[in-house]
Amino acid sequence: MKILITGFTPFGGEKINPSYEAVKNLDNEILGEKIVKMEIPTVFRQSIKVLEKAIDNERPDVVLCIGQAGGRFEIGVERIAINLDDARIEDNEGNQPIDETIYTDGENAYFANLPIKAMVKKMRDNNIPASVSNTAGTFVCNHIMYGLLYLIDKKYPHIRGGFIHVPFITEQIMNKRNTSSMTKDQIIKGLTYSIEAIIENKLDIKMVGGEIC
Ligand code: PCA
User: Fold this and answer.
1) How far apart are CA 80 and CA 185, in angstroms?
2) E strands within the chain?
3) Hey, what CATH topology would domain 2-200 get?
4) What residues does each domain of the chain span?
5) Which atom of ligand 1 approaches the CA of 8 most closely?
6) Rounded to whole angstroms, how far apart are CA atoms 75 and 199?
7) Residue 126 CA, ligand 1 centroid: distance in Å
8) Which residue's CA is minimally distant from atom 9 of ligand 1?
9) Cβ-proximal residues to 172 (8 Å cutoff; 6+ apart), any chain
10) Number of helices and strands (H, E) in the chain?
């Protein structure tokens, strides 16, 4: 099995992006399966193009995209991506789409087709704070997750794919009061456990993991 795992370039004034900091330090093999790592630009449209090209070149069985969710205190395995860009800030090339449809011929939303509860359980069982997240926002992370699941729906039906949001790495919060973070090592461990759960579970497990608003 080949697993393509992506992280984003830094954005919003940050010097690093914890997603790629962790991704580039993952082992090249997990449970005997090959791990291919890449960095994706935090840019609307371009990010999906780069990902599609990588999928065509690498022909992975699983695609897992990772992004920064600054301020979150735990690792969030995203359940759903919506067909909408609504950017609060500009991306790294100055684009700021407001309430724009990503693909006019796409569904309103797509669910991740990964064992999201099993991924959360494996992280929590190993003392990494994690939960299912029911929104990936409306910026480039939702955009890439939607783009990935759209491509799976239209072009690569055999691929399993999804998205994980990770908190700031501790060095990013030195001047941010009362802001949560994790060490790089914890994030690397969390991603490794998630990948193990993907390899171990073709189908998801049934486990409490919903939200009450
Ligand atoms: N996080 C942003 C985009 C890139 C990233 O790492 C987001 O959550 O949309």
Assistant:
1) 27
2) 2-8, 29-30, 33-40, 62-68, 75-78, 80-82, 109-111, 130-133, 160-166
3) Aminopeptidase (3.40.630)
4) 2-200
5) 6
6) 19
7) 26
8) 141
9) 14, 15, 16, 18, 70, 181
10) 5, 9
**How many residues are recorded in the chain?**
213
CA-CA-CA-CA dihedral for 142, 20, 153, 122, to nearest 10 = -90
Atom of ligand 1 nearest to the CA of 7: 6
Catalytic annotation on 165? yes
Question: Residue 142: which of 99, 204, 182 has the closest Cα?
Answer: 99
pLDDT of residue 153: 98
Q: What is the mean pLDDT of the chain?
A: 98
What residues does 77 pair with on adjacent strands?
132, 164
Ligand 1 site residues (CB inside 6 A) read 8, 11, 17, 19, 42, 67-69, 137, 139-141
Structure tokens at 39: 């960095």
Q: What's the rounded Cα separation, in Å, for the pair 199 and 10?
A: 29
Banded model confidence at residue 192, pLDDT cuts 50, 70, 90: very high
Ligand 1 pocket test target in 66, 140, 166 with most atoms within 8 Å of CB: 140
Tokens 């941010």 label which residue?
Answer: 176
For residue 183, the model assigns a pLDDT of 98
Rg (Cα) of the chain, in Å, rounded?
Answer: 16
